[in-house]
Every structure is written in C-alpha cells, then in structure tokens.
Write a structure and sequence with these properties.
The protein is of the alpha/beta class. The chain has 12 helices and 15 strands. The protein has one domain: Rossmann fold. It is 30% helix and 18% strand. The strands form 4 sheets. It has an 8-stranded mixed sheet with strand order 4-5-7-6-10-11-12-13, with helices on both faces. Strands 1-2-3 form a 3-stranded antiparallel sheet, with no helix packed on it. Strands 8-9 form a two-stranded antiparallel ribbon. It starts with a strand and ends in an 11-residue tail after the last helix. 47% of the residues are buried.
C-alpha cells in the first residue's frame, strides 16, 4: 500500500499474493539487498533520487528517477545510449552517452520522455504503474564492473564502467520500497534493451513473488558470431563481465543468444518480448552487419530462440527504424499496432503472439 502524508508518500508494500512464477518463488530470494530506507516522493510527479556510491563513466555520482502511482505495479526502464570498449570507441568516436547525470540533467530528460511514460493517454499499457527510470552513463549496457584506462594517440582516459554496481544499488532502493509488487515490467531501449535482458535474471530474483514481464526494445541478442566474436570478447574484457555472463548461462560468452533460451526455461510463466525493425540501422552498424545480413540473422534468432518458447515473442516492423517504444502508437506490422500488442502481453491475453512481416 502507499501511505500519503502531507503531499508526499512514505511508501511501503504489502504482499501481492500468490505468484505465477514457479522457479523464482521456489528458489527463494537471491536478488539485491532489501536493507535500504524506503523512498519518499510526491505522487504523480517525477522525483530524482541521488544514490551515493554510484558512478558515471567520469566517476561522478548519479541516481535514478521515480514517478509514483497508488498501484501495485512497477515499470522499470533502462535508458539507452550506445556503448564503448576501447580507445577508439570510448575516446575517438565517443560512441556512448556519458555523465554527469544528476538532478540537473534529469530535469532536461524529463521534458523529452517518450510515449511509454505518457500517463494522459488512456491506451498506454504502462500508464498506471509506478515508473522507475534508470539513466545510462557507463557505456557498458548497464552490466560492467571495471575501471580501465584507455590509451591511444591522445591523452589516456580512465573510464568507470560501473553499470552493474549502479543497477544493484538502484534496484536495492526500489525493492526496499516495493518488496512485493503484483506486476513488474522490465524494459529498456537500445543499450537499455540489452541492459534489460542482461539484468532480467537479477531483477527476477529480486522480485520472486511478482508476475514479471520483459520488453527488450532494440536489444537483440543475435546467435553465435552474428554478434561478432571479437566485439563480444572486447565487451567481456573491457567491462569485466565474464563472471557475470557465466552466471547467466553456460556457453553465453560465445553465444549471447543462449540467454534467451535460459530465461524462458527458468521462467516459463513470465512473458518476454523483443521489439525490432528488420534492418535496424543503429544495431547493425554496431554489429558491423549489412542490412540484409542483419535481417537474416535477426529472423533466424527469432526462429531458433524465441519461437520454440511459450514465453518469448517478437514484434518486428519493416525498415531501418531504431527503437519502437517511442512510437508504439504508430509502429505497425501486418495490421497490428504495437501499443495494443503490448497491452495484450502484460494483461496475459491468450492470443498474444509474434507479429512480423
């Protein structure tokens, strides 16, 4: 329940009742610590939360934002913004967004939030949930834990890839405030889409009694070396994520797509979704794939990893658009609009299924 006092909320939650997730509930609590003070916030508005000890790529502290509603649902969103893993990508090309990200920067972001955060639109499937916005400033798909110094032709740069410790710190504040939500939607776009699926097992174990959903927007884990082997190994080394990836599933270091199978096997009663265009210009550029090759690899992964599952489905549109959540009222394929498709998903509609050209 949410207890309102003098225009703010001292937030606590009671039990959400029986869980539909067998694996997470039976395994017991294995997620992040629940030992933080509950958050306080003004209902219906965005509140920035500073988190001491968190770090952007430059070492500056950061945090996250919440918009509280008097419901038992959470919508956790991971922000996107590229990635980097060496001197060329982190310094020369500067292919990842970076800090500082604090209350001042959040005030700017807040004015440009995409459609999924619009509470005024009655058809928005996320409109009644308490919203958790996790910003991105670590260049590591929200899962790194390393502080390398990148060297090259210019001055060296020390880079704080601290996405995973940040994520754990943020989720700890969230679960200490909402320990037993009825439903939790974990989502993200682009780098945040990768972050959402890579951290889903951690979040799932943090909320073992909740009904849970994953919406991975433009973060496809392609099979084998469709995600180039050298790039995967560069991520693993630069971000120090080898142990983290091994903990997700056997063989994931060489084939990230095995995580999709592992998640659906571990959590068969959850619902998971991948959103993508056939030839996503941004993602295929990062993976160094030609448009037709990316399309073939994407559809092959959907056929091999998602289609055999009862839990994981895809919404794919034609073209090269990057990210779909921000256009969920207009993104359409085979006569189906994304927004009602997502509504079917999180309301457990029996007819919910993959839609693709």
């Amino acid at each position: 329940m949410l207890i309102a006092t003098a225009g703010t909320l001292a937030i606590s939650c009671g039990s959400s009742g029986a869980s539909n997730n067998d694996a997470g509930a039976d395994a017991g609590y294995q997620g992040v610590p629940r030992d933080q003070q509950p958050l306080t916030a003004t209902p219906g508005t965005w509140t920035w939360i500073d988190v001491p000890g968190s770090q952007c790529q430059d070492g500056t502290p950061t945090g996250f934002a919440i918009n509280v509603q008097d419901t038992s649902d959470l919508f956790i969103f991971y922000e996107g913004g590229g990635a980097c893993w060496d001197y060329i990508t982190c310094v020369v090309a500067d292919t990842a967004t970076h800090g500082p990200v604090g209350a001042t920067e959040w005030a700017v972001r807040q004015q440009m939030l995409p459609q999924q955060f619009d509470r005024t639109r009655m058809t928005n499937p996320f409109r009644n949930a308490t919203m958790i916005y996790i910003p991105y400033c670590t260049g590591d798909l929200h899962v790194g834990d390393n502080v390398p110094t990148y060297t090259g032709a210019g001055a060296p740069l020390t880079y704080y890839h601290k996405g995973l410790p940040d994520t754990i710190a943020f989720l700890s504040r969230v679960v200490s405030t909402w320990p037993d939500p009825a439903r939790v939607v974990v989502s993200g776009s682009s780098a945040g889409g990768f972050g959402a699926i890579l951290t889903y097992d951690l979040t799932r174990k943090t909320f073992p009694g909740s009904r849970m959903y994953l919406v991975d927007d433009a973060g496809p884990l392609l099979e084998g070396d469709a995600l180039p082997a050298a790039e995967k190994q560069a991520w693993i080394s630069a971000w120090n994520i080898g142990g983290f990836i091994d903990g997700l599933c056997a063989g994931c270091q060489t084939d990230f797509s095995k995580l999709e199978t592992t998640l659906t096997t571990s959590y068969p009663n959850d619902r998971m979704a991948l959103l993508s265009s056939l030839q996503d210009m941004t993602i295929r550029t990062y993976f160094m794939l030609m448009p037709d090759v990316f399309q073939t690899d994407l559809l092959q992964m959907i056929s091999d990893r998602l289609a055999p599952s009862v839990a994981f489905r895809a919404f794919v549109i034609t073209g090269q658009q990057h990210t779909l959540l921000g256009t969920m009222t207009t993104s359409t394929t085979n006569g189906m609009v994304l927004e009602p498709w997502l509504d079917q998903m999180i309301n457990d509609h029996s007819g919910w299924d993959t839609v693709q050209p």
